[in-house]
Amino acid sequence: MPGRAGDPGHPDGLRAAGPGQRRPALAMVPADRVLAALHGWLAPLPPEGASAIVFRDTDHAAELAAAQGIRSTDLLASGIVDVVVAEHPDAADEPVEFSRRLSRAIAAEVQALRGIPASERLAARLQRYRNIGLP
């Protein structure tokens, strides 16, 4: 039914507003637009888990997060995330202000998507995810 989320005729915008791991977070990524909080990250395994596996401690979590490219700024640079929403200094410290910034960012992205024909959005979405991991 046109106009329903998941339908190619409906803009699929979503946010990844914080730490994201495993299948539920990764399943949110295939969308027309992906937004992330500045301190957000997305990975199948949290950095602490990767550190525990590789180094047998969690002391190397930040180093592995940088190497894995899972931070919101890394995801923006690689084209997985479209917009990074600022946190001052952390969304938990300013929930109302952060929610307002996030709401404005979502509204702007949805408005922009409304002006793009469904066939173009779908083609762009498919191309985007075909290119993930390619140089």
UniProtKB/TrEMBL annotation:
Pfam families per record: ACCA
Enzyme Commission code: 2.1.3.15
Report which reactions are catalysed by this protein.
N(6)-carboxybiotinyl-L-lysyl-[protein] + acetyl-CoA = N(6)-biotinyl-L-lysyl-[protein] + malonyl-CoA
Organism of origin: Mycobacterium intracellulare 1956
Question: What keywords tag this UniProt record?
Answer: ATP-binding, Fatty acid biosynthesis, Fatty acid metabolism, Lipid biosynthesis, Lipid metabolism, Metal-binding, Nucleotide-binding, Transferase, Zinc, Zinc-finger
Kindly indicate whether the keyword Repeat belongs to this entry.
Answer: no
Q: Which residues form the CoA carboxyltransferase C-terminal domain?
A: 1-112
Q: Name one GO molecular function term.
A: ATP binding
Keyword Transit peptide found: no
Q: Which residue ranges does the record annotate as region Disordered?
A: 1-22
One GO cellular-component annotation of the UniProt record comes to: acetyl-CoA carboxylase complex
Kindly provide the name given to this protein in its UniProt entry: acetyl-CoA carboxytransferase
Extract the SUPFAM superfamilies matched here. Answer: ClpP/crotonase (SSF52096)
BP-aspect Gene Ontology terms:
fatty acid biosynthetic process
